[in-house]
From TrEMBL:
The keyword Signal is assigned to this record: yes
GO CC annotation: periplasmic space
Family that this chain belongs to: Belongs to the bacterial solute-binding protein SsuA/TauA family.
Keyword Zinc: no
Listed name of the protein: ABC transporter substrate-binding protein
Keywords of the record: Signal
Amino acid sequence: MLFILASCGGQKTEKVRLAEVTRSVFYTPLYIALSEGFFKEEGIEVDLKTTWGGDKTMTALLSNGVDIALIGSETSIYVNAQGASDPVINFAQLTQTDGTFLVSRDKTDEFSWDQLKNKTFLGQRKGGMPQMAGEFVLKQKGIDPKKDVNLIQTIDFANIPNSFASGTGDYVQLFEPQASIFEKEGIGRIVASFGKESGRIPYTTFMAKESYLKKNAETTEKFTRAIYKAQNWVESHSSKEAAASIQDYFKDTELSIIESSIERYKQQQSFALNPVLDEEEWNQLQAIMDEAGELPKQTSHQELVNTKIAEKVTKNH
């Protein structure tokens, strides 16, 4: 649903209900769009809520609890495979690599991937992008995630950090800033980046029901334009400036950790430079899903990705 609110000056502000799958520095361009007023410039008021996990986020979208979801593209493939009459369409890409880091409880300076063998690995949800990208990388490194490690996947997404902090697992996959927080607190040490190892994929995208995009074409274009402005802002400003801008979204995290986390993501080019989700990345996503045994069926780029909005926005900016 789209709500129209009349402002004091008579100008209409469009309200968009947005759900993010987690709260992470990985989504810096989104918070920049909010903090730097890019949504407001477009006449949009974004009501942002964190839904903590792919299943919960997609449920909120399908049940009309939100208008737009920021979530892994794989979820749209799962929904489509179930025969959705109103398919979920990816229309703007935010991140283009995996956003997780491998954190080791052992703080030795020398790391090699074979150290994971016969160890307990606190993994992510089965079928979720973090877990599939993680398994993809492990296999590239000669490790069978089903046989060579003791893989734990029974812990709810939001509780994984606390579980590791309380002593579960030798290794864990974490987003920033949580990974750096644990490193500073002496709980573990960042030893590898899954983003660097797994290559370019449409890891997190903005998506909405096809019916919403048709009914709210202008609003979706404005939303995408604000995101593109934020992507350009992140690219042209320092990590220190970005950290200061989004600090209110991480009030319990030290500014220096926010800054170093943003810099880490910038260095490995995790933030998409524009919102266009191209076909090559889409095919890589499905290759990773297929490798994990989680791809229900091959789905064409044209079927679940709308690039027209993002292409129009980038062409006219």
